[in-house]
């Protein structure tokens, strides 16, 4: 009986500590998100989404003249317009976490969210 109580206490303590650790990691991960815009594997721009105060757009042009218009708002980013035929990048919608990237294969563009790092430059 004493052995069972011991294991119940140990397992309960482990679950409580796991919950506290998960909450701390999620709250830390949620702040300081940086959108990294790549074209053909080259980093073009890093944007600290938590410091954006007003919406703005910019255009990324591929070598053949194809363009992607990127819309940035506080805490999120999307491709609002693209010259590519499939429009997958536009239909992906808003990106505000690091779960899935926005990708435009015809224009070799990808946008990924990463946690804030000390060397991330705001542009």
Could you write a compact summary of the structure shown?
With 123 residues, this protein is α+β, with helices and mostly antiparallel strands.
Q: Could you characterize what this model shows?
A:
- The chain is α+β, with helices and mostly antiparallel strands and 123 residues long.
- Helix content is 26%, strand content 36%.
- The chain folds into two domains: 1-30; 33-115, N-utilization substance G protein NusG, insert domain (mini-chromosome maintenance (MCM) complex, domain 2).
- It is built from two helices and seven strands.
- The strands form two sheets. A four-stranded antiparallel β-sheet has the order 2-1-7-6.
- The longest helix has 28 residues, at 2-29.
Per CATH, the superfamily of the largest domain is N-utilization substance G protein NusG, insert domain
Total number of strands = 7
Give the biggest beta sheet.
4 strands, antiparallel
> Which CATH class of the largest domain?
Mainly Beta
Secondary-structure element string: HEEEEEHEE
Tags for this model:
mini-chromosome maintenance (MCM) complex, domain 2; alpha+beta; 7 strands; 3-stranded antiparallel sheet; 123 residues
Secondary structure layout:
Layout: H1 2-29, E1 33-39, E2 42-48, E3 56-61, E4 67-73, E5 76-82, H2 88-91, E6 102-104, E7 109-115
Antiparallel strand pairs: 1-2, 1-7, 3-4, 4-5, 6-7
């Amino acid at each position: 009986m004493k052995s069972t109580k011991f294991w119940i206490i140990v397992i309960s303590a482990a679950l409580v500590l796991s919950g506290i650790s998960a909450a701390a990691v999620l709250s830390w991960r949620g702040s300081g998100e940086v959108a990294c815009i790549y074209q053909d594997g080259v980093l073009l721009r890093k944007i600290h989404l938590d410091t954006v105060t007003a919406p703005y757009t910019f255009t990324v042009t591929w070598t053949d003249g194809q363009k992607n218009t990127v819309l940035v708002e506080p805490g999120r980013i999307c491709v609002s317009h693209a010259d590519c035929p499939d429009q997958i990048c536009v239909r992906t919608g808003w990106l505000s976490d690091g779960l899935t990237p926005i990708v435009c294969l015809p224009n070799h563009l990808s946008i990924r969210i990463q946690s804030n790092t000390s060397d991330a430059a705001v542009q």
